[in-house]
Design brief:
The structure holds two protein chains of two kinds. Chain A is an alpha/beta fold. Chain A has helices at 6-15, 17-39, 44-60, 62-75, 86-99, 111-115, 118-123, 134-141, 158-169, 178-195, 221-227, 248-259, 289-293, 309-313, 315-318, 331-341, 358-362, 369-382, 388-401, 404-412, 416-426, 432-436, 447-455, and strands at residues 79-83, 104-107, 128-131, 198-201, 205-207, 212-217, 231-237, 241-242, 267-271, 279-285. In chain A, the strands form two sheets. A six-stranded parallel sheet of chain A has the order 1-10-7-4-2-3, with helices on both faces. In chain A, helix 2 (17-39) runs antiparallel to helix 12 (248-259), helix 9 (158-169) packs across helix 10 (178-195) and helix 16 (331-341) runs parallel beside helix 18. The termini of chain A are far apart. Chain B has helices at 11-16, 18-30, 46-50, 54-68, 79-88, 96-103, 108-116, 136-141, 157-162, 186-189, 191-207, 218-231, 240-244, and strands at 4-7, 34-36, 74-76, 105-107, 129-133, 169-170, 212-215, 236-239. In chain B, the strands form two sheets. Chain B has a four-stranded parallel sheet with strand order 2-1-3-4, sandwiched between helices. In chain B, strands 6-5-7-8 form a four-stranded parallel sheet. In chain B, helix 11 packs across helix 12 (218-231). Classes of the chains: A alpha/beta, B alpha/beta.
Chain lengths: 458, 249
């Protein structure tokens, strides 16, 4: 399998100058709002520590809390299913739907179902799946995956949305007024809600002591998906468990502030007991999480609450777009969890970072994201998944820099510095430095030469 | 008794920006520091380690320790190199000698601000509008300034030092903490994003009215200068050591 080429994909994203400018500005705006909101909470940094501790505690007692959740949910009349991987998850969902003759499924946003590639699986089996989150619906209609875990269509301008809706919903292609577009989506989605055989949500949190599923949304679409059809299925990654309801007092305060810079989402919905005459199912999904939990350097990535703050602040993400990562999860959190799914395919992603550390500093659950990026690079090199050119450049660079004699010869050869730096770089992409940058001019002498001349012992 | 320090000049500073190393040396000497310059030094190993190739970094790291073992202080005009030495110089066995070298390494601004505790630079005058660029290693790893991401009281060691320079004025870029996109080998292996970040960075400073971009990290400046020159922008670049040592332009 060919590794995802993030650099190549980013060059296309950057060429669309209207898009990259909007994308960068829009996400930076979210980061700025986040700063403003978090500044209103004096104990913000303590909250981050507390959130991290709750998550680390839960993850290190995960089996117990999962079983407690299962017992509570069952006592509430919920059917609990366990799925080892994506295939099992999709099969479980399909079995529930097929046994009830369901032909249509309305769903709210769930990264997990994207991770499992559930939609194509169900559609191939004759079940229509309708995304009801506005951004997700735009992406579904355009046959693209979401580019951001919170704002899935953030890489599109409203004129792009007008084009997609005109093509798929029959709206006026010349009208890119956001209210018109949002209302058009609303009107065309509503009949799906009313007719759907089943509804689905993901989960922001699953509370062990009550068996409740907690979903945070801004559009109310999750509530419609749950409350209109007769069957409700929640797909839940096993790391979404929190021990007690009171812990929501930490996480709910942080989630939307980190994500969008708003104090709270419009809706924080708790789904616990099926309504009379309806069914509620919860599918608890592993799909690599248990294995990740066993990785000493990377298990804390499971603390993630999917707020997207690391993506909003990431200068690389903002300038390359989520789709350039070629994975369900993009941006800083993506590059540290994608390699656990397929190391070779996602081997370039940990290098799509300057290691600037802004992601780590905004993370509400204190995941040391940029340190994990650094560690992934080592794993990738050790598993021989580096590109040949980079491997060779590092081998040569290592030899050169380990030897004062070779290093002096390289630096002080005719042409001095000009030769040395670009030579290493020539082994990457054809003189990548010079494409959009001037090469520094070579000085008359190196510092060492200057030092020997002016300060050398007589 | 005079304080003794060894000067570490990063490979690219040695090759391309000798004036930065000269200014660092002279500045330390102005404060009475006895500065040694071990002649066999090359690099700290960061380019290889940041690429995941720790085995390839081992030779440079061992050489670094051989050059700098035994000194009370090791000072360098580069935040990212010192960050590597302090946090990531782990490709070789962690002997007492290695640990000592790692703990005694300082980036120039923190050495001036924290170790020497100096605040006055009476010889320095820089009558220009300056945009301060904090390299990400200096900012978020060495913590030489507060970061906008955290809920913390604002502070800036480089700004504190620069504020003592006569005639200096500061421009306020809109995104002062944003990475400029150098990132070591990132600059070539992720060239499209790297260049775009550099362009955005220099435009931000220019828009804020900066004549000069000043930084404690020459690698960031090398990248930004390359971008600004290609774009034909009227911006100049100078290392903080030069400004504090009394460079006038």
């Amino acid at each position: 399998m060919k590794p995802v080429d993030h650099a190549e994909a980013s060059s296309h994203f950057i060429q669309a100058s209207d898009h990259i400018e909007f994308h960068d500005r829009r996400l930076w705006d979210l980061r700025t709002k986040r700063d403003r909101e978090t500044a209103t909470i004096p104990e913000w940094e303590q909250l981050r520590t507390l959130a991290s501790q709750i998550k680390e505690h839960t993850l290190s007692h995960l089996a117990d809390y999962l079983e407690q959740f299962e017992r509570q949910a069952q006592a509430n009349g919920v059917t609990v299913h366990w799925a080892r991987d994506a295939a099992e998850h999709n099969q479980v969902v399909h079995d529930i739907l097929a046994a009830r003759g369901a032909r249509t499924l309305v769903k709210s946003k769930s990264m997990l179902t994207d991770e499992c590639e559930m939609r194509p699986f169900l559609e191939q089996r004759g079940i229509a799946v309708i995304e009801t989150d506005l951004g997700e619906r735009i992406q579904q209609l355009d046959d693209e995956p979401p580019s951001h875990i919170v704002v899935p269509a953030v890489h599109k301008l409203r004129s792009d949305v007008a084009e997609v809706f005109a093509r798929t919903l029959g709206t006026d292609p010349a009208n890119s007024d956001v209210h018109y577009l949002a209302e058009s989506q609303r009107q065309t989605t509503r009949p799906h809600f009313l007719q759907a055989d089943a509804g689905m949500t993901g989960a922001n949190f699953a509370v062990a002591e009550t068996g409740a599923i907690v979903v945070c949304t801004n559009e109310g679409n999750a509530d419609l998906s749950v409350h209109l059809p007769k069957v409700y299925i929640a797909s839940v990654g096993i790391e979404k468990i929190i021990p007690r309801t009171e812990h929501l007092g930490v996480f709910v305060r942080m989630l939307s502030r980190s994500a969008l810079g708003s104090p709270i989402t419009q809706m924080t919905s708790h789904f616990r007991v099926p309504r009379p005459g309806t069914e509620m199912h919860v599918v608890l999904v592993d799909n690599g999480r248990a294995e990740r939990l066993g990785m000493a350097d990377f298990w804390t990535s499971l603390k993630c609450i999917r707020c997207g703050a690391c993506m909003n602040t990431c200068p690389v993400y903002r300038r390359s777009g989520g789709l350039s990562y070629g994975a369900t999860y993009s941006g800083p959190i993506g590059v540290i969890i994608d390699p656990t799914y397929n190391l070779r395919k996602y081997s370039a992603l940990p290098f799509a970072s300057t290691l600037n550390g802004s992601c780590t500093a905004v993370c509400p659950v204190r995941i040391d994201i940029h340190d994990q990026i650094f560690k992934w690079r080592k794993v990738i090199a050790e598993r021989n998944a580096l590109p040949f050119a980079k491997r060779q450049a590092m081998k040569m660079g290592g030899k050169l820099l380990a030897s004062p004699r070779l290093f002096r010869a390289a630096v002080e050869a005719a042409g001095a510095g000009v030769e040395y730096l670009p030579r290493v770089m020539l082994y990457s992409r054809l003189n990548a430095w010079g494409k959009q940058r001037e090469v520094p001019a070579a000085p008359a002498m190196t510092f060492r030469q200057w030092y020997l001349k002016h300060r050398g012992r007589p | 008794m005079a304080l003794k320090a060894a000067l570490f000049v990063p490979c690219y500073v040695d090759a391309f920006f000798p004036e930065v190393a000269i200014a660092t040396l002279e500045l330390l000497e102005r404060f009475g520091v006895e500065v040694a310059y071990p002649l066999d030094q090359t690099c700290c190993g960061q380019p290889m380690a940041n690429s995941g190739c720790h085995g390839d970094a081992a030779g440079a790291e061992a050489l670094f320790v051989r050059n700098f073992a035994g000194f009370d202080h090791i000072v360098s005009p580069s935040g990212s190199c010192i960050h590597h030495v302090r946090e990531h110089l782990t490709a070789i066995p962690q002997t007492d000698e290695v640990m000592q070298v790692r703990q005694r390494s300082f980036e120039l601004v923190e050495f001036l601000h924290d170790v020497l505790g100096v605040r006055e630079f009476p010889w320095a005058e820089f009558p220009h509008t300056v945009g301060l660029h904090n390299g990400c290693s200096s900012l978020r790893a060495l913590r030489t300034a507060s970061m906008s991401e955290l809920n913390e009281a604002p502070f800036s060691k480089p700004m504190t030092l620069l504020s003592a320079v006569k005639g200096i004025r500061f421009a306020q870029p809109r995104r002062p903490d944003e990475c400029c996109g150098f990132g070591g080998t990132f600059s070539v292996f992720e060239e499209p994003v790297s260049a775009r970040m550099g362009q955005d960075k220099v435009q931000d400073h220019l828009g804020a009215g900066a004549d000069y971009i000043v930084s404690a990290d020459m690698s960031c400046l090398m990248h930004q200068k390359g971008c600004a020159e290609r774009l034909g922008l009227p911006l100049k670049f100078i290392h903080i050591a030069q400004v504090l040592n009394g460079a006038s332009a």
